[in-house]
């Protein structure tokens, strides 16, 4: 009877140990040479301009060095092409593109059925009516933050005070994402670093980080590193809190308090959602979706706000113009902001678009070609990963004249070419929370601009770092002065 043990013994007896080792080593070397040297030179992608082949680490040491986004921008310039070939870890070839034509096509690669039906289920949660209900949450939190800043200014005798605005943006978005996500007020503004605030901030920043580390080290997440032990603790806390919230919501709607028109949190909407068979979602899907939304909406919005404040402080004329518009449209902080009021802030909208052009916090995303494809004569083998580099797209001189210049006016005078400006991507995976984010960011910026002048702290310099989002480092402090008209 066949058994691996008997077979191996037979092979060793007939070939001998020495020859066996030679055969195995030769097979491994041949495989390596074929996949790493021959395939590379036979690949249809060899016709693309690109970087020199490096077998083990690919071009990744270069990619990971320097400021976030800078290497991709440099590669594109160096190869004089908006689409290039480079090598990932293990010598795997990849396409990197900042070409609007290729972006337009790759972004419409089909999404799976599961993704499609989840997206259908989530769409109503981001309707204008729901967002309208969430607006007071953004406004209340902006008011609380402004009150704290006013108090600091008062104590400083209305001299400029230094404020860690990056920390405040983290807190305000944590507060809003917890209220609009879970109908749970964590009081990050004004409560210092409570255990809950620390745990939520860490957890929401790590949901993404975990996938990066674990893609390189198998079972990474299960290894007992101190950081992982911390994650397990945090996860236990968060899971139990969210489960409690789900049960509370199920109870609330079971008791018949259902008034969907007034709902202002994603958890309620998910608990009330019904699939095609009229069934409610099981707890695990509610959990997955609500944490997914919170994760996707937290760091992205807080860091984009930080970049906008940094740019407003760096360009006083632009700040003045944005403030004049705010004072014209919504000077009175006691009047509630509405969707219509915020729509009138056309210049502030351009400031945000230009901020997101220069600092797209999601600087790149990857799509995999499921089948062999041909885009504009370029043969793309099945399985090729295409890195759509928004940082390079937004800063390429071919796509944007004076690309490095901060110029919100460029969005006022011309219509933007399709696929030239994609901070929220487009296509089946486009950001579902873009309107939510814009509403929140305009509310926060308008509330700050009508009360304060923002200046850079003398000597402040920063570099872009790639954390979960591309953010400034060291964290942004600004000199904040109360305006005299207030
Ligand atoms: C300035 C803020 C934001 C930026 C720049 C941003 C950007 C993006 C981008 C680029 C994607 C696509 C990622 C990819 O395809 O790889 C995405 C997806 C997503 N975003 Fe946002 N986002 C922001 C705010 C928000 C907010 C506030 C929410 C929710 C409250 C949200 C929820 C989502 C969700 C659920 C997805 C996954 C969509 C899907 O897979 O169908 N985002 N976001």
TrEMBL record:
It comes from Mya arenaria. Signal peptide: none annotated. Belongs to the cytochrome P450 family. The chain crosses the membrane at residues 20-42. This is CP4V2-like protein. It comes from the Eukaryota. Keywords: Membrane, Transmembrane, Transmembrane helix. Gene3D superfamilies: Cytochrome P450. Pfam families: p450. The lineage of its organism: Eukaryota, Metazoa, Spiralia, Lophotrochozoa, Mollusca.
